[in-house]
Amino acid sequence: MDFCGKKVVVAGFGLSGKALCKVLLMLNAKIFVFDSENEDKFGDDLKEFKEKGVIFCFKKVTDELLNGTEMVVVSPGISMDSDIVVLSKSKGIDVIGEVEFAYRLSKAPIYAITGTNGKTTTTSLLGEIFKASGVKTYVAGNIGYPLVEAAINANAEDVIVAEISSFQLETIKEFKPVISAIINITPDHLNRHKTLENYIEIKGRIFENQTADQFTVLNYDDKNISSLFKKAKCNVFPFSRNRALEYGTYLENGKIIISANGEKSTIIDIEDIYIPGNHNVENAMVASTMAYLAGIDIKVISETLRTFKGVEHRIEFVRNVNGVKYYNDSKGTNPDAAIKAIEAMKGPIILIAGGYDKGVSFDEFTASFKGRVKKLILLGETKDLIYKSAIKEGYSEDDVIFVESIDDAVYAAYNAAKPGDNVLLSPACASWDMFRNYEERGRLFKDAVNSLRG
Hints:
By secondary structure, the chain is an alpha/beta fold. The protein has helices spanning about 15-25, 45-50, 65, 85-90, 100-105, 120-130, 145-155, 165-170, 190-195, 195-205, 280-295, 300-305, 335-345, 365, 385-390, 405-415, 440-450, and strands at about 5-10, 30-35, 55-60, 70-75, 95, 110-115, 135-140, 160-165, 180, 215-220, 235-240, 250, 255-260, 265-270, 315-320, 325-330, 350-355, 375-380, 400, 420-425. The chain has 3 domains: about 5-90, NAD(P)-binding Rossmann-like Domain (Rossmann fold, 3-Layer(aba) Sandwich); about 100-305, UDP-N-acetylmuramoyl-L-alanine:D-glutamate ligase (3-Layer(aba) Sandwich); about 315-450, Mur ligase, C-terminal domain (Protein-Tyrosine Phosphatase, Chain A), CATH 3.90.190. It has 17 helices and 20 strands. The chain has a 9-stranded mixed sheet with strand order 7-8-6-9-10-11-12-13-14, with helices on both faces. A 6-stranded mixed sheet has the order 15-16-20-17-18-19, sandwiched between helices. The protein has a 5-stranded parallel sheet with strand order 3-2-1-4-5, with helices on both faces. Helix 2 (about 45-50) links the parallel strand 2 (about 30-35) and strand 3. The radius of gyration is 23 Å and the shape is globular. The termini are far apart. About 50% of the residues are buried. Pathway: Cell wall biogenesis; peptidoglycan biosynthesis.
């Protein structure tokens, strides 16, 4: 792609937007940045880019901003009905997202993973498997390292393993991973996607450009994914925890088995997988399958599964204080993810939950408390919604504590806990009502836990 001297508008000046600016500067483009926030929000972040000739426009989209623009590249946080997108499209300007831009730029093959839950763990695990096989690997995308930075740095002989969100899939056009996967789909981000059907359709876009010589790995057990099987033009390689498959990945006698081309290969006994929980068995099945289809030796796959210790903010053990274990699951940003964290705990749970309202139901989440959650500590925008749902499911109002901060939540949990209990931060909500992101929420939780007297 030749961007020398061409006007490109970057919409959104967050992590993706800054990375796009850096790469477009390397490509000698004429860069304009639009953000709907006030300029003073960004402080010193603007100075570096202004000195390099980047022009900024805030709050309102103007004709001057879009005049002569050849491309608008939107960050994931920019919705498709925003002014910058609608006006750009009305003028016939090519509107794409960072993932699409990175794909067009990349020389390296991309292995792409989406799903409602488990994306970060599976992406990290597959990245570790590739690294263990001796391939230079970039783990990027919705995982915190912008895909566009990986794309500009990776060579043709390298590999990019990418976590892809539904927000990022909204803006693809040509994006075509070598192997893709959808781990699972449960209701999430309905405040943006409006309906579960829209959300499912957007998730399915991950394989829409893949061809007959390529693979997508799909969850055979997930009823929300069943409609996508027939839509794939590429090879569908299913996985199932519940039944044996003639062609696909499944469990047999407690082992992960891959059956393909008339041969069965045993990957690992699930008891030997280092990271706990049934949900992580699924994550291991997906990563193993993608690695197997990429031609990686089974011994490398199984050894990585034995040693991979998981990711920060996902059922992350923080500390044992007076016989009470504290776990950071700030990555549990929807009810299904939080349910999986609750199910992974051994022993009574003091649960810290609540956060930004994404328009989903909490009834299945609160129904999972029975026999597991002894105290419920609530904070954030959704605290009343979760409380009402919990009471409706028969949870005792005497066991609910309302707090205003993470520090207060940790101290309330500390006072309520007894040896053998687990204090679990698994909010079932996004973090944007009180924090910049789930990482900040998780770090503050860990700071509070580490300040407790043992």
